[in-house]
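chain below, 375 aa
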Amino acid sequence: MNNRTAIVVGAGILGMATARALAIKGFKVKVIERSQFSIGASIRNFGMLWPIGQPDGQLYDRAIRSREIWKEYLSTSSIPFNSCGSLHLAYSKEEWNVLNELYDIFRESGRPVSLINQEQIGHKFDGINQTHLKGGLYSNDEVIIDPREGIRNLPHYLIQKFGIEFIWGTAISRVKPGSVFSGSTRFDADLIFICSGSDFEVLYPEVFKQLEITKCKLQMMRFVSDKPNYKLGTSICGGLSLLHYKSFTASKALEILKTKLQNELPDHIKWGIHVMVSQNIQGELTVGDSHEYGLDFDPFDKHLINQLILDYLKNLVNIDHWKLIETWNGTYPKMTNGKTDLHIEVENGVHILNGIGGNGMTLSFGFAEEIINKI
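prediction:
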């Protein structure tokens, strides 16, 4: 019988995914979080489980595995989710060429995708702008949850199912092999995992400085519709999103589209804007986002960025009946060397898991399983 113990620092999605993977391996696990509940990037996102953005191979398989775990948790906990897929819209021949090429590539690899024309989109989905619409690429892989509800209830599920212990409101100020410290309070374990986003810079500043890693700030908004029972029907993306995800680089036509968008939408490119909208079960519509990179950011939302997002969104969806209810920003670490994740053993038995960028909801469960299985 495995009597080994583990501590996970950080109760975001990656920290909780790591705790789950450890518990399945028989570890007695404590999760220590400085806040009273999860308030970081794990709740400041679209709530999209987004396999379509991951390239074929390990990352796509990781996304599908993560989705399986999410569904198991959500179903067990009676938390609603929507397996509504995603729709990438094309309003120019360059966008349409990319989608047609991706359709052939994705279909050959076995992904559940289809091309649909303007008329089909108008019949199936509510409020899509039909002007100049060429068609769309629909994928059946994607799932939407409300990240706030999903993350808020996840600790209770992990406690009940796996016996994981959560210690809230406790900031870890020092780590050494076998122990973590919150001031003078000491917690001991055989293995320690630092899953606290960019906060690991505080615990291991020299390590952070040596890594090819930066931080990303994003801006997002949430709306409700004035129309009773309004349902968009799927998650919506436009041409700018084709520049954002690695899976789309499989298209040779993408470079032509990239040049076109750089010429036509320089401010959107400058601020790293790609526009998406998801709708949760309560009908709320989450819209974003932008990408500013650096080690520090001002704490304020830029009106210019939100307006650029909305200007582009209006080309995709009729939003005249939408009412803005929230705006926010969030930050997360991102690798600058092209890698999609970070796992390093900084000291004997002390591991840092990080660097999965803006794909935490999509990849964390699968990534954590892979790492713990190796260890």
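The two ends are 17 Å apart (CA to CA). The first helix runs from residue 13 to 24.
thats it, cya
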